[in-house]
Design brief:
The chain is built from five helices and no strands. It is an all-alpha fold and 81 residues long. The chain has a single domain, classed as ACP-like (Non-ribosomal Peptide Synthetase Peptidyl Carrier Protein, Chain A), CATH 1.10.1200.10. α1 crosses α5. 14% of the residues are buried.
Amino acid sequence: MIDPEQTLIDEVAAILSKDPAAILPDTPLHELGIDSLSFVELLVFIEKKFNLKLLESGLTKEDFETIHSIASRIISLNQTS
């Protein structure tokens, strides 16, 4: 299985045109520079890459605070499916 956290770091870095090494997984997304447009871009990526239907997943606002929290939730969703 792919590492969701590293995959998300790489995608956020690509969206923000930053070096992946500069993206810390526990930094809140808004502090990284994610705005509403880039957030939608990230959501589309998550749905496609991890084969999730976000509207049906039960993810909450808190799940999207950091890359680490998103990755943890993706892992738990994959374990229950």
